[in-house]
Amino acid sequence: MARRFLFPLGVLLGVLLGFILIQPNDLTDFQTHLALLLDEFEFDVSLPRFPQLDLSSVENEWRKLRNSIPEPWKLNTNGLEFTVGETIAARGLSAKHPVVLVPGIISTGLESWSTAPEYRPFFRQKMWGGFSMLSQVTFNREKWLNGLLLDPVTGLDPPGAKVRAAEGIDAASSFIQGYWLWSKIIENMAAVNYDTNNLHLAPYDWRLSYSNLEVRDSYFSKLKATVEGFVFKWVESPQHGNGGPDWVENHIEAVIHIAGTHLAKAMAAFLSGEMKDTVQMNPAGAYVLERFFSRRERRKLFHSWSGSASMWIKGGDAVWGNTTFAPDDVDNRNQTHGELIAFRETVVKALGEHINNMTADTASNWILEHTPEHFQKMIATNYSYGIERDEESLKQNALDHTKWSNPLEVQLPNAPTTKIFCVYGHGKETERSYWYTREAYEYDEVQPDATPAICENATNCFTPRAPLDMPLSRKSMIDAEYTDNALNPKVLNGVKMGEGDGTVSLLSLGAMCVEGWKRKRWNPAGMQVTTVELPHKPVGTIPRGGGTTADHVDILGNTALNEIILKVATGAAHEVKDNFVSNIREYAKRVQWD
Predict the structure, then answer these.
(1) Structural domains of the chain, count
(2) Three-state SS for 581?
(3) 3-state helix/strand/coil string of 188-225
(4) Residue 146 lies in a domain
(5) What is the pLDDT of residue 230?
(6) 3-state class of 182 per DSSP?
(7) What is the pLDDT of residue 270?
(8) What pLDDT, on a 0 to 100 scale, did the predictor assign at position 301?
(9) At CA 248, angle to CA 246 and CA 249, rounded to 5?
(10) Is there a domain that residue 271 lies in?
């Protein structure tokens, strides 16, 4: 007999929010997965009407639901567990090189260590990841938000709150029980004799800037001291790592970038707290998200998390194009991705003001002008987003930590025998540029529009304030009402779609790998760089696509990716060759490298 559960919109929001921020796949994919799950275990979903919610009874029902979900979820398996590792082991290959897995932004679980009275109920509970997060988002939203916000000035812990990265292999194995992240790779590595003695997952608090990761947690120093399987630019710095210029050559066999966000990702989120998934939700889901977790609140989180600024667009117009051309524009186009932010003529007329379409350079400055001053200062002291072509300047940049997260402004290490592998998916529509709209004025703590802010460049932007007690700013947001499938590239809910893995655009994934790092200017030691593109061919009957998906996150369960990792780890890296399914080599040659 089917069991009946009360499943309020608030709980649904918790689930949606978690996957919107950690897994930027199409929301419809997750909704399908959730429907399969509920149907599998005969859950009957009932949606009560707002605002007649008895939160105490709702929370009780949530706890019942949480305790009644069987382990493991259907989403946890795809029938391919351990098979790649067993195949590699059958060839007589076994663990050779120690391996460090460094998860991407927002993959690591975060847990509360605060003993302040208001946070004691959450002590050692997950603030990010896990069912406890979903419960807190739904029933303790304000405390959850305040717990995850960082101090806007220092970029470190705010008063009273103390959140730290979870530790160990489980820190980024799964987001919630059954929704795997790195666990598929760990399973296959275990089949070729990897365990906690030679396999290390290096979780970190992804909210922090790289500099503050070292200041607060000594992350890079600890990683260097305890593991000889991976290294960041930090270890070569005489001020910090004391590893010396040959450390990478002496300690690192290979680096594998999995769906690496080398040159850009989340620009719209900094301006309006949005991304493709939030504007392409169905109306009911969009209402729930905005009702419980508004654009302003989402934007406030992004402005607080200085680590997120590492995904700011790099290289400007030289990489991303101008008002008439972009390197990844396709044939027979009738609009260009070079206009990163554009406005419909009807929107401009309705505003009654002149506003131009924007390229990467002008959009970066415009977005910074609409961020708090503390965020602008954080950017200026932690990051740089230009392109440096002078080799002597590149050498000097090795001593400037603000350059290290930008591959266009720093050289690869002096490690001629260390190998780099870029592995990513292709074949899933990906947000590339945007149509924006502006609406009525509203109170905004960021800045008023009365006195236009002026940024000289994207790394030196401080907003002049107008002498108003109630600063007003026009609301800027993705033009979600604008869809045109006849355009090339097509527009879906204000997002101009391009090529990529569903989350990261193709230029960001592959341009440095196939062209930038092939040049002595950025790769003076001539490190070998191999690029493997995996076609996105998901199996429709398997949740999350099975072993042939190449989606940004689900690629971690891709059979070919797992084979590559195991071959490199077991000493068969020579078997991994370049493989292309896109036009990335052609696109990359159009970038203004010189």
Answers:
(1) 2
(2) coil
(3) HHHCCCCCCCCEEECCCCCCCCHHHHHHHHCHHHHHHH
(4) no
(5) 42
(6) coil
(7) 79
(8) 85
(9) 65
(10) no
Which CA distances in Å does 406 have to 268, 397, 400, 402? 19, 10, 11, 8
What gap in Å lies between CA 502 and CA 275, rounded to an integer? 12
204-221: b (≥16 Cβ within 10 Å) or e: bbbbbbbbbbbeeeebbe
Q: 443 in a domain, yes or no? A: yes
Helix (H) or strand (E) holding 367: helix 360-369
The answer, yes or no, to whether the previous bond of 48 is cis (omega within 30 of 0) is no
Q: Which amino acid is at 532?
A: V
pLDDT, averaged in runs of 10, over the chain (594 residues): 33 40 39 44 40 57 58 53 94 94 88 92 87 80 89 92 93 82 94 93 94 94 67 54 75 92 82 59 50 74 88 95 96 93 82 83 89 89 95 95 95 95 96 86 52 49 45 74 93 94 95 98 97 95 88 93 97 98 98 97
Within-domain flag for 324: yes
State which of 25, 51, 70 marks the end of a domain. 70
- How many angstroms separate the CA atoms of 242 and 247, rounded? 9
Name the burial class of residue 346, with classes exposed (0-12), middle (13-18) and buried (19+) by CB atoms within 10 angstroms of its CB. exposed
List the structure tokens of 71. 């382990």
The Cα angle at residue 60 between residues 58 and 66, in degrees rounded to 5: 100
Strand partners, 428: 501
User: Closest Cα to residue 382, out of 274, 457, 308, 319?
Assistant: 308
Q: Which domain holds residue 291?
A: 286-387+432-493
Last residue within a domain, chosen from 46, 70, 94: 70
